[in-house]
Specification:
Radius of gyration: 10 Å
Distance between the termini: 15 Å
Strand order of the largest sheet: 1-2-3-6
Strand content: 25-35%
Number of domains: 1
Order of helices and strands: EEEEEEH
Helix content: 10-25%
Length: 52
């Protein structure tokens, strides 16, 4: 599952990716698009809460 959301409220959409074995990632958005710079892990509850 993937979700686009401005999680850090900087004006750019961040890409949240749910991994098969619980490896959930956030790829930060920027004026250059979504990049792997600053990639972080996030917990499932953060991503699940976006759907509500």
């Amino acid at each position: 599952m993937v979700r686009l959301r401005d999680g850090n409220r900087d004006g750019y959409a961040d890409l949240y990716v749910v991994g098969h074995m619980g490896g959930n990632l956030r790829l930060l958005g920027s004026n250059a698009g979504i990049t792997t710079a600053g990639i972080t892990t996030v917990d499932w509850a953060t991503i699940e809460g976006m759907g509500q």
